[in-house]
Structure formats: structure tokens, C-alpha cells
């Protein structure tokens, strides 16, 4: 019967905004005759395209090249020169509620205009302007970056339209603080509209727009979460262009710092879980020597579920255990901590063998997040005289026994029971083994034997591990030094870090004079 039961699996159309006419200079802005949409409706009644809700802003997700702070783009990538139907045309809203470009024409259903069908003006940054006077004089001047490319501008007259226009390619939002917040008429909170936008677009850069006599509210807007504020009467293309680029870069920096802090917090939580998996042994009064080695598998940067424990009960029996929850991650690690704590409590309460493992299976079944999650376990109870032990295996590799003058060997595993959580009502027979007067007993998880050997792709396996330990014992290695050398050699044979965690536990009984 194969001692390791690790083969069981463990579980845990967008509408574009269309293309508009090419960018024109101030002297070229003449109305373009509307083109029939082909859908049987007049252009004046064509509905506003509804793009899908975005997931990650272009500025944070790296969809556009980073803008330099002196007014130009950091680089002109090939993607920026590619015409993208939904990211080529600045939109505003005409008095009838239709999305238009800055020249005042509405794109047809195919996203083309009569004079520049199939072409688009490349752009690096996209601004969403939210202000409540689309029919009046534009508060945003024409914006060009240092290379002469236009900064694309879309205009929404309320937050409902803004939510529709908030697509993947929007980098920055310019919000008029005079705009009323939806459903908050008469609200005493002067920044209610800003707070609503920050909830709507938590990952976007936001600029607040105020009046000349309302700079205090602009400063408060920055404290609430806006990247900066601008005074309406002081706007010009150069100032606004630089403010947009600074806001985008500042938001990028804040997002990077937030992700870094979250990563550090996760690392701290993982270290706490690992400490829960690897406790301090309770061996007071025992003559046995204890050593342990744990090395997390970091190729996938995920926390594993290997755990072990050793306790001595009042009758002098030393109980040792090592186990492994299938899978990687905090859920599996947390389950391993629960199983270890439950094992210690049940052992100190006097349970062992089949009764203890049956109770642990009940704990696992109630605590696991998925019915396919299981755990392998090996338990050993060493008699007070240290010469014999009881062994129970639940789908786990058999321990290795080394005695003076004899080659190291695996303990019998013919009565290996199933892993915990696989078979309801399973039983785990307890085998009696003779240890002798002087011995070393090594318990380990399958990470020690599942590493590869050189370029062959073959696994080290239990036979390869036994041969390696025999050689190291012949070299005189013992205790912590033996475990450290064994784990390092397995890593070396694997050609680098192991994909799975490795936990190794060693108990030694040395004959005293």
C-alpha cells in the first residue's frame, strides 16, 4: 500500500464609445453634418453608449505609459499609436443628453465620422470632467501634452452619467464641488458629492474644482481624499495639464504604497500562523532529545499547512505528531493550527491511536472550507522506558528509524490508514514497534521526498531519502546538524527552492553511562 495519499485533489460584450472626428485646432471647429446611424433613428435621438463598469484604472493597471512631470509622456509606446475604438474620442454631453466629442458632433453607432472613418488620434491621458453646466462655456480649456497630443476629455453633467463614462481608459476625474450629490438635497455636508465619487472610483485620481472664494473647501477636499484642488477662475491649459499628470502619478504612488503595506500585513499574519504550526514542545522530565527543522516552500509564495507537536503526558509517555493539510494558503495553515491544538488537547486528555484520529477527523470535517480538503498525519507514542512505541499512520509517510550498528530503515506501513477527511467512519490501527535501547526516530512531511533529482525529473522518494540519511549518519551527523544538512541537500538536488513546505522532527534516545 502506498504510504502517501497526496494524489487527491484539493480545492478551494462591451459596447464601445465609438470613434469621433480628428482633433481640430480652434480655427477648424466647424459643425460636421451628422451621419445616419443605420438603425432607423435620427442622430438627435441616439442613446448614449453604455460602457461596462471598469475594474482597475488605466493609471494603476499600467495600461498607459507613465506621464513625465514636465508635461510630456515618459515614452511613446506602440500601443499608444494604435487606434482603439473606445479610447480615442473625448466625449461631452449635449443639452439633449447625448454623448458628444469636444467639437459638438455625436458619433454614429459604428463609432466613425464621415471625414475620418477608421482613424483615431493617439492620446496618453483621459480626463473625466463632472460638472453641471454642459451647455455653458467650457471650464476646461483644450489640453495638449508636451508632444502636442491632446489630453482626452469626457464630460458628464451628473454622477449617473459619470458612472457610465467611467471606463477602463480614464486616468483622472475633475469634479466640480458645486455639483449636488444624488439624493442629498439640502445635505449640510459640503463634500458629499466628493465622498460619493471617491466611493464610486476609489482607485482613480481625483481633482476637486472650487470657486475663487471657496479655497477652504478645496483644502478640505484634499484631506478627505482628493489628490489636489483647482480654482475655476485660474484654470489654463498648462496648469490643468500639469495638475492632471501630478494627480495620476500621486495616485499611482499611493496605490503602490497601499499594496506594499497590505503585503507586509499578510506576511506578518503568515508568520503568526507559522508560529502556530510550529509550537514549543512539552518534554519536561523526558530524557529524549528533540530537534526540528521547518522550511517553507516559497516558489509560490504561499503559506503551507505542515505542522508538528511533541508532548509528554504525566505517565511518562512521549507523544509526537507530524501532519500536512493539502494545499497552500492561509486557510490551510489555519486548519493545520486547529488540528495541532486539537491533537495536543486530546493527547493531554488521555486519547491516542484510533480514538484520537477519529476525533481529529471530526474536527477537520467541521472546520474545513471544502469537502475535498484532507490532511495526512503520523502519530507516535513512545513508552516511558523508551524501548517501544505505538505508530498510527493516516495517509502519511512512515517514520525513519536509525540504530547504532544497523542501517536506517522505514518503520512498517502495511496498516497505513486513509488520510483524515477522505473516508467517513475510517479506522486507523495502531502498530507496536520495537525501538531498542539507543535510537533516532525521524518524522517528516512529504516535502522532503517530493523534490526532484537533477535534470531527470524523477522525485527523490522515500528510498532516495533513506539512502541520503544513511550516508549522513555514517558521516557522523546528528540532531540539528543532521536535519539542516538533509534539507539543504534535498534543495540542492532539486536545483533550488522546493515547491512544498518541509517539516522534519527528530527524537533521539542516547544510552547514558
Automatic annotation (TrEMBL):
PROSITE patterns: RESPONSE_REGULATORY
Region annotation (Disordered) ranges: 1-124
Keywords annotated in UniProt: Hydrolase, Phosphoprotein
UniProt-recorded Gene Ontology molecular function terms: phosphatase activity
InterPro entries in alphabetical order: Bact_Sigma-Reg (IPR052016), CheY-like_superfamily (IPR011006), PPM-type-like_dom_sf (IPR036457), PPM-type_phosphatase-like_dom (IPR001932), Sig_transdc_resp-reg_receiver (IPR001789)
UniProt cross-references to Gene3D superfamilies, sorted A to Z: 3.40.50.2300, PPM-type phosphatase domain
Domain Response regulatory: 126-247
Positions of post-translational 4-aspartylphosphate modification: 176
Positions with biased composition (Polar residues): 93-113
Top-level taxon: Bacteria
Protein name according to UniProt: Phosphatase
Species whose genome carries this gene: Streptomyces calvus
Organism classification: Bacteria, Bacillati, Actinomycetota, Actinomycetes, Kitasatosporales
Amino acid at each position: 500500500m502506498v504510504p502517501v495519499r497526496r494524489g487527491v485533489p484539493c480545492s478551494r460584450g462591451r459596447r464601445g464609445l465609438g470613434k469621433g472626428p480628428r482633433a481640430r485646432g480652434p480655427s477648424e471647429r466647424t459643425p460636421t453634418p451628422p451621419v445616419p446611424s443605420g438603425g432607423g433613428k435620427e442622430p438627435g435621438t441616439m442613446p448614449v453608449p453604455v460602457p461596462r463598469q471598469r475594474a482597475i484604472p488605466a493609471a494603476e493597471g499600467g495600461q498607459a505609459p507613465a506621464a513625465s512631470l514636465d508635461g510630456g509622456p515618459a515614452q511613446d509606446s506602440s500601443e499608444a499609436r494604435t487606434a482603439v475604438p473606445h479610447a480615442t474620442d473625448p466625449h461631452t454631453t449635449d443639452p439633449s443628453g447625448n454623448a458628444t466629442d469636444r467639437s459638438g458632433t455625436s458619433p454614429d453607432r459604428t463609432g466613425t465620422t464621415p471625414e475620418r472613418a477608421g482613424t483615431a488620434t493617439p492620446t496618453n491621458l483621459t480626463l473625466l470632467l463632472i460638472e453641471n453646466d454642459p451647455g455653458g462655456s467650457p471650464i476646461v480649456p483644450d489640453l495638449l501634452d508636451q508632444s502636442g497630443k491632446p489630453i482626452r476629455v469626457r464630460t458628464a453633467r451628473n454622477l449617473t452619467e459619470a458612472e457610465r463614462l467611467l471606463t477602463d481608459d480614464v486616468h483622472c476625474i475633475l469634479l466640480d464641488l458645486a455639483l449636488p450629490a444624488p439624493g442629498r438635497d439640502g445635505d449640510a455636508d459640503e463634500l458629499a458629492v466628493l465622498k460619493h465619487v471617491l466611493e464610486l472610483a476609489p482607485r482613480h485620481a481625483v481633482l476637486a474644482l472650487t470657486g475663487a472664494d471657496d479655497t477652504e473647501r478645496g483644502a478640505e477636499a484634499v484631506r478627505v481624499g482628493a489628490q489636489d484642488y483647482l480654482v475655476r477662475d485660474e484654470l489654463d491649459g498648462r496648469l490643468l495639464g500639469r495638475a492632471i499628470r501630478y494627480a495620476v502619478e500621486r495616485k499611482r504612488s499611493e496605490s503602490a504604497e497601499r499594496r506594499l503595506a497590505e503585503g507586509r500585513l499578510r506576511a506578518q499574519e503568515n508568520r503568526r500562523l507559522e508560529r502556530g504550526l510550529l509550537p514549543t514542545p512539552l518534554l519536561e522530565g523526558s530524557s529524549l532529545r528533540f530537534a526540528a527543522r521547518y522550511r517553507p516552500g516559497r516558489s509560490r509564495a504561499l503559506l503551507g499547512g505542515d505542522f508538528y507537536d511533541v508532548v509528554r503526558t504525566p505517565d511518562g509517555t512521549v507523544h509526537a505528531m507530524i501532519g500536512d493539510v493539502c494545499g497552500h494558503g492561509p486557510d490551510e495553515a489555519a486548519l493545520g493550527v486547529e488540528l495541532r491544538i486539537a491533537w495536543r488537547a486530546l493527547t493531554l486528555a488521555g486519547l491516542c491511536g484510533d480514538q484520537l484520529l477519529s476525533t481529529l477527523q471530526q474536527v477537520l470535517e467541521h472546520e474545513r472550507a471544502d469537502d475535498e480538503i484532507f490532511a495526512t498525519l503520523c502519530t507516535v507514542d513512545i513508552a516511558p522506558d523508551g524501548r517501544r512505541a505505538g505508530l498510527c499512520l493516516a495517509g502519511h509517510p512512515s517514520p525513519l528509524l536509525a540504530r547504532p550498528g544497523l542501517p536506517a530503515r522505514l518503520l512498517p506501513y502495511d496498516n497505513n490508514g486513509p488520510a483524515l477527511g477522505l473516508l467517513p467512519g475510517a479506522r486507523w490501527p495502531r502498530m507496536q514497534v520495537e525501538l531498542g535501547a539507543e535510537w533516532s526516530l525521524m518524522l517528516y512531511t512529504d516535502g522532503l521526498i517530493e523534490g526532484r533529482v537533477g535534470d531527470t525529473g524523477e522525485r527523490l522518494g522515500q528510498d532516495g531519502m533513506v539512502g541520503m540519511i544513511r550516508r549522513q549518519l555514517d558521516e557522523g551527523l546528528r540532531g540539528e546538524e543532521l536535519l539542516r544538512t538533509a534539507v539543504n541537500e534535498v534543495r540542492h538536488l532539486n536545483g533550488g527552492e522546493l515547491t512544498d513546505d518541509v517539516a522534519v522532527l527528530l527524537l533521539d534516545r542516547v544510552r547514558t553511562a
